[in-house]
Amino acid sequence: MTNTDDKQAVTGLYPRLVVSDGPRAVDFYRSVFGAEEVERYTDPDGRIVHAMLRIGGVPVALKDEADGDPAPTTLGGSPVIIAVDVADPDAVADAMVRGGATVVHPVADHPYGQRGGRLADPFGHMWMVFRTIEDLTPEEIQERTTRMHT
User: Fold this and answer.
1) Distance CA 123, CA 113 (A)
2) N or C: fewer beta carbons within 10 Å in the chain?
3) How many Å apart are CA 54 and CA 16, to the nearest integer?
4) Is the pLDDT reported for residue 2 higher than 70?
5) Residues ≥6 apart with Cβ < 8 Å to 98
């Protein structure tokens, strides 16, 4: 289905992460993913109301929780998983753990052609770090996925 109404055309999209400690989150994403901080705006108390980062060239915004925007740690978690294709998922997962992340699923080889794992960062956001280790057709991926679940 194509949206032909130009008034509804998407001109950009990026995640906006709500965190419990914005400055610490910026440092964490910088050390783990090599994030570049593009801009930061704070309230008079120093809380981040908006920071824009670039992670692998992708824009990611974040802010401290406030004004009805709770962090996942306040809510007891988040159902959203951010998938990040990296050169070395083992090294990234290790760096995340050193920075305070928790392993949800350890990094391992998977039958659908990826090596990866899932971690919860110290701010409650879920990250899947992975890399492709086997080029498969969509049909091969579906076949292997079906076998995994039977």
Assistant:
1) 29
2) N
3) 12
4) no
5) none
